[in-house]
Design goal:
Distance between the termini: 45 Å
Number of strands: 7
Order of helices and strands: HHHEEHEEEEE
Oligomer: single chain
Helix content: 25-40%
Largest sheet: 7 strands, mixed
Shape: globular
Structural class: alpha+beta
Number of domains: 1
Length: 186
């Protein structure tokens, strides 16, 4: 014989709903603070190592900073990371980056990257999308010798400039093509 009545069961469920609803929506979670701390450290490292990126940041309408993206693959591969969108050096949104691939690949690596949105139109297009995928329209500024950062003259007029740095691991090459960025609540 059950001592739970229908009313008792309903009241018990309703009192538990707010508790369960707060479990996974970021309320009270240190996730945002953790991402912001990593973003700050990543920007400090990038500015110290590649001083030319400071002028890119000053000219940009906004920056998406992904402190750590982990990528691994053995025929089938994938990658994941979390970061923040900053406008005027203030975090306005948080994003995840995901990537999947199939092909001749083996290994794992981690890297950081920053997307500089050089026009207001590129920034607004990114923010309005439900899931923005990096494609061939991104121009790359890359480390070609030692600690020098090389940017082509076309990079200066590109709507989105990517800087990839801090690569560590045993997988050849890093490309952001096919990387999908989605807004999240950490």
């Amino acid at each position: 014989m059950s001592i739970l009545t229908r009313r008792g069961f309903t009241l018990g469920v309703l009192t538990g709903v707010p508790l369960l609803a707060a479990c996974n929506n970021g309320v009270g979670s240190p996730g945002a603070a953790r991402i912001d701390a990593r973003v700050n450290a990543t920007l400090e490292h990038m500015y110290a190592t590649y001083p030319g990126t400071r002028s890119l940041a000053d000219k940009s309408a906004g920056m998406l900073v992904m402190p750590v993206v982990t990528q691994a693959g053995f025929v089938v591969g994938g990658g994941f990371g979390r970061g923040a969108l900053r406008i005027n050096n203030v975090t306005v949104d948080y994003y995840s980056a995901t990537k999947g691939s199939v092909g001749l690949q083996i290994g794992a690596q981690q890297f950081a990257h920053v997307l500089f949105f050089m026009t207001e139109e590129a920034l607004q297009g990114f923010r309005r999308s439900s899931g923005w995928a990096a494609g061939a329209d991104i121009q790359y500024a890359f480390n070609d010798r030692g600690e020098n950062l090389r940017a082509e003259t076309t990079t200066a007029t590109a709507p989105v400039v990517a800087v990839i740095f801090g690569q560590a691991g045993l997988m050849a090459g890093v490309s952001l093509e096919g990387m999908k960025y989605t807004r999240i609540i950490p």
